[in-house]
Amino acid sequence: MVYDVVIIGGGPAGLTAGIYARRAMLQTLLLERMGIGGQIIVTDLVENFPGFPEISGADLAAKFEQHALKFGLETKNMVDVTGIEDKGKTKIVKTTDGDIETKTVIIASGTTPKKLGAKGELQFTGKGVSYCATCDGFFFRDKTVVVVGGGDSAITEAIYLTKMAKKVYIVHRRDKLRAEKINQEHAFANPKISFVWDSVIEEIVGKQVVEKAIIRNVKTKELSEIKTDGVFIYVGLIPNTGFADVEKDEGGFIVPYPGQATSVKGIFVAGDCRVTPLRQITTAVGDGAIAAVSAERYIEGL
Ligand code: NAP
């Protein structure tokens, strides 16, 4: 069979594209390499999705999924996309579960947390080094943790960790945060959080598990250490776009054209994996809606 739309990625962008595509009566399949919901599943608290002033990421993801399923979206989990072959009027989506033919593709494959590249990071991953406070925070009750980064992920996850940990150090390479102002204010007001400015992690040290982080001040070059049980790393995102042969920027983010099109006709893009000034759930769902409507119009013109 030939699908009208294959959506790659089951986060807010992909699920919204699914809702709009199904409401346009398009034969639609959504592929997800893990569980449906995307990165918000591991977000403790979402406060900026209109209509939901306070909702857990997992609950919001479940609502998105139920909504898409209500309109008959077909989904397949645990399927990895390895490539897209452009055959003109149709595309072949190559997956670990076989080839799928479709008239259009919407890439909504999101991002993966970037590694820091510090000595000891790999060795202690799962033994104190983590990229997910919601998944691992529980293990740090009444303990000390270091959070690395100055963006929204670092700041919101540091605030979340204060619910369990007795002390949270935020180590940031500059003396200004990149995070939203309201998140900054919450962190500055939190008595459990201390900031270590102009500093990077030189090394993560321990025997079986993390015991301390060696910190280098980038201005004075001075080395110091923080005794810590965990290091949570939030230093940015890598787009999951390796399978797609479309125009990208130097970081691998897909360049969007009007209507969420890409450089290849019939392939559209939505959400965090595209070049965008803002990566939020609100922007992802907007992208998903536009991409699905563009796919519908493209199919009408075939
Ligand atoms: P980000 O905004 O790219 O921030 C990454 C942070 O890591 C920056 O502060 C950066 O420092 C630092 N960094 C990068 N490489 C580093 C290195 N090698 N060593 C030390 N520090 C390094 O990434 P993010 O925080 O994951 O956020 C990604 C997107 O999701 C953003 O658009 C963000 O707004 C959005 N988001 C929003 C929320 C929310 O609640 N609204 C929550 C999570 C994420 P510099 O500042 O010096 O570059």
Kindly describe this structure.
Strands 1, 2, 3, 4, 5, 6 and 17 form a 7-stranded mixed β-sheet that branches. Strands 8-15-9-10-11 form a 5-stranded parallel β-sheet. It has a 3-stranded antiparallel β-sheet with strand order 12-13-14, with no helix packed on it. The longest helix has 20 residues, at 281-300. Helices cover 23% and strands 28% of the residues. The relative contact order is 0.19. A hairpin with a 2-residue loop joins β5 and β6 (98-107). α1 packs parallel to α6 (281-300) and α4 packs parallel to α5 (181-189). The model has no long low-confidence stretch (mean pLDDT 97). It has helices at residues 12-23, 57-70, 133-136, 152-161, 181-189, 281-300, and strands at residues 2-8, 28-31, 74-76, 81-86, 91-95, 98-107, 111-113, 129-130, 144-148, 167-171, 193-196, 199-206, 210-217, 223-227, 230-233, 237-239, 267-269. It folds into 2 domains: 2-112 and 237-300, FAD/NAD(P)-binding domain (3-Layer(bba) Sandwich); 115-233, FAD/NAD(P)-binding domain (3-Layer(bba) Sandwich), CATH 3.50.50. The protein contains 6 helices and 17 strands. The chain is of the alpha/beta class and 302 residues long. It starts with a strand and ends with a helix. NADP nicotinamide-adenine-dinucleotide phosphate is lined by residues 48, 116, 148-154, 156, 173-174, 178, 180, 200, 234-237, 278-280.
